[in-house]
Amino acid sequence: METAIAAVNRTPFSINSITLSSNFATGSVSALGFSLPNKKSPSFHQRSRIFVTRASVAVEEKAETKAAVIRIGTRGSPLALAQAYETREKLIKSHPDLAEEGAIQIVIIKTTGDKILSQPLADIGGKGLFTKEIDEALINSDIDIAVHSMKDVPTYLPEKTILPCNLPREDVRDAFICLSASSLAELPAGSIVGTASLRRKSQLLNRYPSLEVLENFRGNVQTRLKKLKEGVVQATLLALAGLKRLNMAETVTSVLSIDDMLPAVAQGAIGIACRSDDEKMRAFLEKLEGSCRTPIAGYARKDEDGKCLFKALVASPDGTQVLETSRKGPYAYEDMIKMGVDAGEELLLRAGPGFFTR
């Protein structure tokens, strides 16, 4: 595991369960709380004795109230770091003691997905490629919390970890970026669209079979936009949420509607993981065994009647066949779980064996 620490000073740290302010998304199962070092711990007394010898009681009191270090694990891409720093700022707003220099560390961890850029994600393992090493660091106590893009998180979390809260969700839609056309419909036949997402590829080819897709169009947002400017592709599709978090929304040519491009499950959401066990997962992907190897999309929202409207989609990788379904029911946790499971079972039945290998 390759790591880099973006801050200094380590201090003992512990996690409790408390209620956070509105900086974190409403409806989280629980939230993260932080406590000061235990006064009975050897490290605390050692530090206190050093301060007393050097200075005065006032300095000793400062040592007692110094906030514990929180180590946030993250990937090193500009977008991942933006999400980690957003998490840090919200933690500081909720817990002012954490504003002290060195109280929060950003620990950069290089994942398998970051190291292997020459192959499509589906060929090297699908989901988990951008989270595995971070989760291992969390389990091994090398970090205290992990910040993940929720769409990268596998259907099943590693043992001893839990995702107790999410930051407020950003725009879930996809963005079309092109230097020569204002929409996908305006692209000439044979134009190459770059995307590493099977979900985007299958929906794109289903609607616009005259276009071509460069599948292994990988790298961070800046790298992909550079390839676009260099003419490697004529257009690309990116998550609007990431562009907004990077303050790069001005690069967007047009925003695709939910009907034109159904987003990935949990697109635009940032999850914060800590150590613990958890058995509750996103019901739809659990039923479909979702990963980057299967073109799956899903989106749920509260409609004007206060009901939950859920849309789901699976597609063959070549885009020749797209199966869609929807559910509407009470906007309640158990009911929404049932809708997700039911939709997943329907799509699996309709797809049949070999559907995802076409």
Automatic annotation (TrEMBL):
<dbReference type="GO" id="GO:0006779">
    <property type="term" value="P:porphyrin-containing compound biosynthetic process"/>
</dbReference>
<keyword id="KW-0627">Porphyrin biosynthesis</keyword>
<protein>
    <recommendedName>
        <fullName>hydroxymethylbilane synthase</fullName>
        <ecNumber>2.5.1.61</ecNumber>
    </recommendedName>
</protein>
<dbReference type="InterPro" id="IPR022417">
    <property type="entry name" value="Porphobilin_deaminase_N"/>
</dbReference>
<dbReference type="InterPro" id="IPR036803">
    <property type="entry name" value="Porphobilinogen_deaminase_C_sf"/>
</dbReference>
<feature type="domain" description="Porphobilinogen deaminase N-terminal">
    <location>
        <begin position="70"/>
        <end position="282"/>
    </location>
</feature>
<comment type="function">
    <text>Tetrapolymerization of the monopyrrole PBG into the hydroxymethylbilane pre-uroporphyrinogen in several discrete steps.</text>
</comment>
<comment type="pathway">
    <text>Porphyrin-containing compound metabolism; protoporphyrin-IX biosynthesis; coproporphyrinogen-III from 5-aminolevulinate: step 2/4.</text>
</comment>
<dbReference type="Pfam" id="PF01379">
    <property type="entry name" value="Porphobil_deam"/>
</dbReference>
<keyword id="KW-0808">Transferase</keyword>
<dbReference type="InterPro" id="IPR000860">
    <property type="entry name" value="HemC"/>
</dbReference>
<dbReference type="GO" id="GO:0046148">
    <property type="term" value="P:pigment biosynthetic process"/>
</dbReference>
<dbReference type="GO" id="GO:0004418">
    <property type="term" value="F:hydroxymethylbilane synthase activity"/>
</dbReference>
<comment type="similarity">
    <text>Belongs to the HMBS family.</text>
</comment>
